[in-house]
Amino acid sequence: MKEFQTGQIRNIGLCGHGSTGKTSLTEALLFNMKKITRQGTIENGTTVSDYSEEEIERQISLNTAITHGIWKDHKINILDTPGYTDFFGEVVGTMRVVDTVFITISASSGVEVGTELVWQEAVKNNVPRFFVINKLDRENIDFDGVFQSIVESFGNQVVLTQFPVETGPNFDSIIDLFRMKMLKFAKDGSGNFTEEDIPAELSDKAEEYHLKLVEAVAESDDSLMEKYFEAGELTEDEFRAGFKKAVAEDAVFPVFIASATTNVGPKRLLDVIVNFCPAPNERGEVKGENDQTRKVDSSEPLSLFIFKTLSEMHMGELSYFKVMSGSVKTGDEVVNMSDGHGERIGQIFILNGKEKENVDKLNAGDIGAVVKLKNTHTGDTLCAKGKEIKYPKIDFPEAIIRTAIKPKAKGDEEKISHGLQVLHDEDPTFVYYQDPELHQTIVSGQGELHLQIILERLKKKFGVDVDEEEPRIPYRETIKKKATAQGKFKKQSGGRGQYGDCHLRLEPLPRG
User: Fold this and answer.
1) Whether 163 and 262 share a structural domain
2) Where is this region: Disordered (predicted)?
């Protein structure tokens, strides 16, 4: 693959509630970029993103999948995240490295709990937000109601950029409020479209929403507002530049539409990503601890941020990173700022799900992976010797559920300990410890499904089968025999007196 400069890179996170079509949208985007020759399906287990045995079996995403493609001489990195809250830690890590998040919303459901969680995490990390209303090919869709639910949840800065001519099985045409044209998509799933005039019966609606879009962009910038008041309109160049600036500054949150499975809309989204999503160097300097900063520029000293770790059989640990500054090459010597030890950068990969492409160099802002780092973990910073900077660790959610485990076979304790450590390195939202007082191994996670997946991986990857049991209570004091006591209280100092008589009886109950 050719070398891409920082300004040619776009890092996009696909996030949202479960079953809103993130993985299918990833497939459609990759297909339109000709990275794959046909769109896979979740039902057939043929998608690029959901490639693990657990994901194919359950038909849900469990890990963030990193994919990429090229569109109009730009490299687009797409990070497809899980939607179930048990795996929200994947979203938290992803938000640290993407430069725009596309929040997917099912046209059948509208705003859901996961939508709001993703929004909050994006706000926390100051990531520009786009919405994609997906699955418009479904029946009984109330598009206007879904759009209004987004506005009500996230404010009047939410602006419509497209709306459907009709929804349901006949959804194949989009009114585009940028071009003020109707985009007619081919029925063959190719993603190709032609531009046509807006039907007369929809022209008033299109003009109304176009005006709201232009006004929202004008209101985001004083100079644009002045020009808009004077001329009554903005030129195309003024509007495009103003829209991109408004998106980067969180002044507008645009809403796009699609049906990923029928490939209606995604090709237009690729143009939007290239033209309006910020490049990594357009989001300002990156901040380290102690007020340190770096420009996202390949001429700066090298610094990498490790946002995910995956253990692969026959390869060892695969560390996913973003080049925060400088450029990284195979053979570079770096320092891990967590403990000061040195690391050597081995073979660098760019990813499409489980498929890896070897590259020798990645520039500032790009995302890749490297194998066999000696002692580097998720959240670590690697940087050039003598040019140190340390980026804040990832603030993962705390565990909310726990259970105790014990091996079914004697002598497996050491294998359990090793397996749990590897699984924790892969997923820091999973926590374990050995309780010396209770003589139990306690495992904690984000939910029942999360722990179920962890224990399945323990068995499949490390050959250890375990039984679950209730964590014991660490009793330190207890009632050994029956006891009774009585106390009286009297107070008389003028006015109404106070009197109390308390009888207390304690007796032991069965443990537990």
Assistant:
1) yes
2) 481-512
